[in-house]
Amino acid sequence: MDSGEDMMGRIEQTLGAETTRLVRKQVRATRLPLARGVRQLKRAVSALEKTVAVLSRLGAGRQAERTASSNAVALKRVHASSDKSTGLPT
C-alpha cells in the first residue's frame, strides 16, 4: 500500500508542477504584450505632456504680449482723451 500511496503522491506532485508551469507560461504570454503596450502609452503620455508644457509657455508669452499691447493702447487712449479735455496740443 505504501508504494501505491507513494506513486499517487508523485503523480499529484508532477501534475501540480506541470499545472504551475503551464499557468506561468500563460501569464507570461498574456503579460508581455500588455507590458509593451503600457510602456508605449507611457511614452506617448510623456511626449504629450511635454508638448502641452511648450504650448502653455508659448500661450503665456503671447498672452503677456497681448496684455502689454492692449495696456499700451489703453494708455494712449487715456492720454489722448486727457489731452483733448485739457486743450493741450498732442
Comma- or semicolon-separated keywords:
mainly alpha; rod-shaped; 1 helix
What structural class do you assign from the helix and strand content? mainly alpha
Rg to the nearest angstrom?
A: 38 Å
This entry's quaternary arrangement is single chain
Distance between the termini: 120 Å
Please give the count of helices: 1
Strand content: under 5%
The average pLDDT score comes to 86
Largest sheet: none
Q: Which parts are unreliable, with pLDDT below 50 for 5 consecutive residues or more?
A: none
Helix content: over 70%
Molecular shape? rod-shaped
State the total count of DSSP E strands.
0
Q: Please write the string of helix (H) and strand (E) elements.
A: H
Written description of the protein model:
This protein is mainly alpha-helical. 94% of the residues lie in helices and 0% in strands. It is built from 1 helix and no strands. The protein has one helix at residues 2-86. It starts with a helix and ends with a helix.
In short:
By secondary structure, this protein is mainly alpha-helical. It has 1 helix and no strands.
